[in-house]
Amino acid sequence: MTKTIITFLFLISSIGIFAQSIDEPFSTRKMKKDLEVFKEIRLKANSGLYKYRTKQQIDSIYNWAEKEINNLSTYRDFYNLICTLTDYEGSLHNNTLFPKKRYEEVKKEKSGYFPFPVKIVENKVLLNFQTDKIPLGAEIVSINNREISNIILKTYKFYTTDGTNKTGKQIGINGSFSKYYRYLFGLENEFKIIFKTENSDTQKSVVVKSVGYSDYRKNFKNRHSKSFDRLQYENLNEDEIYSYKQINKNTGLLTVNSFGIGGNEEATEHKIYKKWLDSIFVNIKNNGLKNLIVDVRNNGGGTDPNDVITYSYLASRKFQESKQVWISFNKIPLLKYYDSPIPAFLRPLGVGKFNRYFQKRFPTEKDGKYFISKETNEMKAREPNKNAFTGNIYLLISPRVASAGSLFAAMVAGNENTITIGEEAMGGYYGHNGHTDFGYVLPKSKILTEFSIDNIEQDVPKKSNQFYNRGIIPDYNVQQTFEDFLNNVDTQMNFTLKLMINEK
Asked: What is the mean pLDDT of residues 478-492?
């Protein structure tokens, strides 16, 4: 065999190994195998499977999925199916991810993407970019003869939230609409956009060329609303994580954009934050402030105990992080599919340490549920801090609020002295699945499915305006208005300041 032929064969084999488009055919046999494994993983490892859905509902959607496979033909089709099942469970910590090689191919794509970022404002999909062909803020009616409302509904599956919450999905749509559109419909060379402008029912049409993945990302980074919503999509600078200022003689503003402040109580960042908190609340007490605005609209979570330490300065009752926590196993199930760099045949040799950890942390079994020890920090009874604020609290929330951020917001919203303002959070009021992340790799598609295994009931009082299968509901539902979107004005903060004046 000549050197030229060998080189040619190597190139052909390399294409087969490395060029893994998500649009390539994927056999029904492989889909059925991975669906079977996916279902087994959920049943044996995921304590949140029936948190918001009945057994009958879960059985029904899997019956649908088994039949739906016969209508699918590509890898992308199957990915969409798994996303549908994952989203249906209702946990913001659920994720469905392409294997690294396939996602690398996605990022290399040079065309086929919708070029412009959008933003949902007052329940309308608006152009969030300055262009020559379509005015900023134009309402999109359809794309390539697909009604925008139907497109948006289909994108919901790609961004998971707690329960049946829908507002939180806007965070994903606003940030990744072009990518979601590509996952749904494949690569398209051009886009016929039907739109209309504010205060006009006249529909206009324009055709625009597609762009590549990297160009769509560049356009998103240059979106109109960046100055207003940057903190929802970018890593925070150190001085942006938390802050405080007194805005008038009676009112202070505490902003906590993340609870990712050190990994535990011994972390230097946590100790600095704790000391800072105490100095702030001593200052608030000494100045005799009557009102405190607590802004967590950009808080997508973080680590314990930053959330509960912060709440101790706003609490008026003894409290604990959780009323109860449980998982659905005492030995890690399905090791051969677990997402680990360790070869599958070696995993049983090293798993004993982790199983003992779970057995110690969750020692009590009842009806197939393993409950957390009362000795853990999650179950620790805590008192309000001696410098806790006792005046009027105005809590600002948004669809971005999740995980530890929503746990904190739920506890604050449960206070009798709190008024909650903004939009429904993606994180639940009564509980969520969190704390411990697990990942499994489906054997044929190599799709990674992730979820959190701790089924958590939060220590919050029952309230008539809070629902078990929803995110935290504000007392005043305040969305950014169209005019404020155009000018990047904070509608919710302005509403809060006016509310305080009117309540004097």
From this structure: 97
CATH number of 238-502: 3.90.226.10
Question: What are the domain boundaries of the chain?
Answer: 118-232, 238-502
Q: How high is the pLDDT of residue 11?
A: 43
Is the whole-model pTM more than 0.85?
Answer: yes
Work out the number of other CB atoms within 10 angstroms of the CB of residue 425.
33
User: For the segment 288-330, what is each residue's pLDDT rounded down to a tens digit?
Assistant: 999 999 999 999 999 989 999 999 999 999 999 999 999 999 9
**CA 176, CA 160: separation in Å to the nearest integer?**
13
Q: To the nearest whole number, what is the mean pLDDT of the chain? A: 94
CA distance 156 to 168: 10
In 6-153, beta strands by DSSP E: 95-97, 118-121, 124-127, 139-143, 146-147
Domain 118-232: which CATH class?
mainly beta
Q: Is residue 3 scored above 80 in pLDDT?
A: no
DSSP string, 288-303: T--EEEEE-TT---B-
The per-residue pLDDT for range 444-480, each reduced to its tens digit, is 999 999 999 999 999 999 999 999 999 999 999 999 9
Which residue is listed with tokens 């105490």?
278
Can you tell me whether residue 146 is helix, strand or coil?
strand
Same fold, 118-232 and 238-502: no
SS3 label, residue 143 = strand
Q: Which of 41, 40, 86 is CA-nearest to residue 61?
A: 86
| Residue count (the chain) | 504
Q: What is the pLDDT of residue 20?
A: 86
- What is the 3-class SS of 356-392, one letter each residue? HHHHHHCCEEECCEEECCCCCHHHCCECCCCCCCCCE
Omega into 305 within 30° of 0, i.e. cis? Answer: yes
Residue type, 242: Y
Give the pair of three-digit tokens for residue 146. Answer: 């697909």
Give the tokens for residue 381. 């009874």
